[in-house]
Amino acid sequence: MKKYLLFLLPLSLLSAEIHFTKTFKAEVDSDMISDNIVIKTSRDNSDDIVTIFEKYNDLFKTSKLIYTKQKEQIMPNYNTNIYSGNLSYNIKSYSFENLNDFIKDLLYLKDEKNLTITIQEPKYILSTKLQEEITHKLRVKAINFSKTYVNKLSNDLNKQCELKDVKIQDVKTTIQDTNIIDLKVDYKMECQ
Q: What are phi and psi of 46, to 5 degrees?
């Protein structure tokens, strides 16, 4: 009779479920330089502003930089019959020299009165490509850890353990000039 009672016990009483979180971290140096550029002008005619902006847009398009147009805006001031134009770009480069050469070309192009070019202080950033590379390496590290840990757990407990679930959240933070990529991994394992 005792033999039959053992079979009636649910298998869940003989198994253990293990949940834990582990963080994998990498510190990465920035590999790109980024800057924001704003060009402002005012003219009697909106067509003049369009012509000026076309010249600057062409310079951005022919550059060796990665650029994103943030804003191109022409607005009339009805009180003074003058048009104001605002053109802004974000630029990025892997090479400080390319960025510097571009800024020289940009300033050389400035021959109009009533035109200002604002160049913010360049900052070093982490490229998406490098961030994805590092995140991938951390994911592989997290998966390899889970395989090793499941085997170690099986040996230590003298039970058959298996990985049931892995949830990965990746977070990038920048503290001063250091980029930190954290991979927070939630593991769920079962041992029987």
A: -70, -30
CA proximity to 74, closest of 46, 51, 94, 100: 46
Distance CA 110, CA 49 (A): 13
Q: Which residues contact 69 (CB under 8 A, 6 or more apart)?
A: 57, 60, 87, 88, 89
Domains of the chain: 14-29+128-191 (3.30.1660), 33-124 (3.30.70.360)
> Which tokens sit at 124?
């070093």
131-177 pLDDT tens trace: 899 999 999 999 999 999 999 999 998 999 999 999 998 777 766 66
Q: Among positive and negative, which fits the CA dihedral 134, 135, 140, 142?
A: positive
